[in-house]
Automatic annotation (TrEMBL):
Binds 1 Mg(2+) ion per subunit. Pathway: Purine metabolism; AMP biosynthesis via de novo pathway; AMP from IMP: step 1/2. Plays an important role in the de novo pathway of purine nucleotide biosynthesis. Catalyzes the first committed step in the biosynthesis of AMP from IMP. CDD domains: AdSS (cd03108). It comes from Streptomyces coeruleorubidus. This is Adenylosuccinate synthetase.
Length: 427
């Protein structure tokens, strides 16, 4: 019953695509359990580069069944265009399974996301503008549209009416925008029904049966721990639960089924959008990390904010996710620095604090306390084992492991599929 959860240990963009792809060959099912096309994975296979937003990265491994779980929010137009884009490049996508309980990002929710951000002005979250927040809000308000609703026109019409009733009031009276027509939205949604039908399935049943048959199931989180709606830097978060518990609710498996929880941890830190970020750099080091690390969003094309490694956050991720392992990514990006600062604690209003403060006010005041670790200048991208790394790179990894509270079981030393050092097998 090997059920692994793979999730971001920081603010997302830690390089999960590479990790899932590394496991892809030995994994039978890859399940996305939350988020939507706000995510962005770049997967490099041979000389081909794939940018995926909504599809699980297992879609690129022929033996693997990719699953979009009930906890995901699905923009049908994005899903269909990602599928046809892959088909054009010769990738077989016929095994994809889509939960009938997944919620649909309707065209009006994409509009609401953008208009709300504009209305918030300086207080905006910096969302990806993909309708993620409003779709989860509809789900919780019980006016959401689910994939299965596409197959009952009368129910779909009633539900769109219910959703637009309130939204149109807000759009016209508060935001000064045009109201959205129910029949137009229904027509657009019905247009997706036949195209999605071959993929729609009872994914909860499929996943649990697979686990009973001892298949290897990988639950792939989007975004990251600090963007979690409950455990992240609220309100500068996404509207779902990327943390490990989200895999249970977002895929319909019990916590007793999960055997391993792997946190993807970048060797430094990045964040997109607004919100506190204690180790953020505004100097040439930040610029260098951005340039060398290629830190530009796959989904929005926005530059990522960059900073040094933050061990306080890593410890927090270990705790809230019950991490059993880390996959450390992008170690090669740090090559060339004489000394590498690592944040080991915060100073908050004159006091040293070792753990992530629960108070938002305190976190906004947190200043990093740095320890300097010696750097290395050798090219590490060809390293195949831990012993191949220069001594200082080894010591950097060991120090991070000690500070972060879980073993580092794999290290990414370059973007390619084979540029990974495996220390402990995940399976
Ligand atoms: P939303 O998920 O579009 O609602 O955006 C909420 C916050 O999460 C914003 O700060 C986004 O930049 C951030 N965010 C959403 N998806 C990702 C991701 O895949 N990587 C990094 N940040 C993300």
């Amino acid at each position: 019953m090997p059920a692994l959860v793979l999730l971001g240990a920081q603010w997302g963009d830690e390089g999960k695509g590479k990790a899932t792809d590394l496991l892809g060959g030995s994994v039978d099912y890859v399940v996305r359990y939350q988020g939507g096309n706000n995510a962005g994975h770049t997967v490099v296979v041979g000389d081909q580069k794939y940018a995926l937003h909504l599809l699980p990265s297992g879609i690129l491994s022929p033996g693997c069944t990719p699953v979009i779980g009930n906890g995901v929010v699905v923009d049908p137009s994005v899903l269909l265009s990602e599928l046809s884009g892959l088909n054009e490049r010769g990738v077989d996508t016929s095994k994809l399974l889509l939960s009938g309980n997944a919620h649909i990002i309707t065209p009006y929710n994409v509009t609401v996301d953008k208009v709300t951000e504009r209305f918030l002005g300086k207080r905006k979250i910096g969302t990806t503008g993909r309708g993620i927040g409003p779709t989860y809000a509809d789900k919780i308000n019980r006016v959401g549209i689910r994939v299965q609703d596409l197959y009952d026109e009368s129910i779909l019409t009633q539900k769109v009416e219910a959703a637009l009733d309130v939204k149109n009031q807000i759009l016209t009276k508060l935001y000064n925008r045009r109201a959205m027509a129910v029949d137009q939205a229904v027509e657009e949604l019905l247009g997706y029904a036949d195209k999605l039908a071959p993929y729609v399935a009872d994914t909860v049943l499929v996943i649990n049966q697979a686990l009973e048959e001892n298949k290897v199931v990988l639950f792939e989180g989007g975004q990251g721990t600090l963007l979690d709606i409950d455990h992240g830097t609220y309100p500068f978060v996404t509207s779902s639960n990327p943390t490990a518990g989200g895999a249970c609710t977002g895929a319909g498996v019990g916590p007793t089924k999960i055997s391993r929880v792997i946190g993807i941890l970048k060797a430094y830190t990045t964040r997109v959008g607004a919100g506190p970020f204690p180790t953020e750099l505004f100097d040439e080091d930040g610029e260098a990390l951005r340039r060398i690390g290629g830190e530009r969003g796959v989904t929005t094309g926005r530059d990522r904010r960059c900073g040094w490694f933050d061990a306080v956050i890593a410890r927090y991720a270990t705790r809230v996710n019950g991490l059993t392992d880390f996959f450390l990514t992008k170690l090669d990006v740090l090559t060339g620095w004489e000394q590498i600062p690592v944040c080991v604690a915060y100073e908050i209003d004159g006091k040293r604090v070792e753990e992530l403060p629960y108070s938002q006010t305190d976190f906004h005041h947190a200043k990093p306390v740095y320890e300097m670790l010696p750097g290395w200048s050798e090219d590490i991208s060809k390293a195949k084992s831990f012993a191949d790394l220069p001594k200082n790179a080894q010591n950097y990894v060991k120090a991070l492991e000690e500070m972060s509270g879980a073993p580092i079981s794999a290290i990414g030393v370059g973007p390619g599929r084979d540029e990974t050092i495996e220390i402990n097998s995940f399976l």
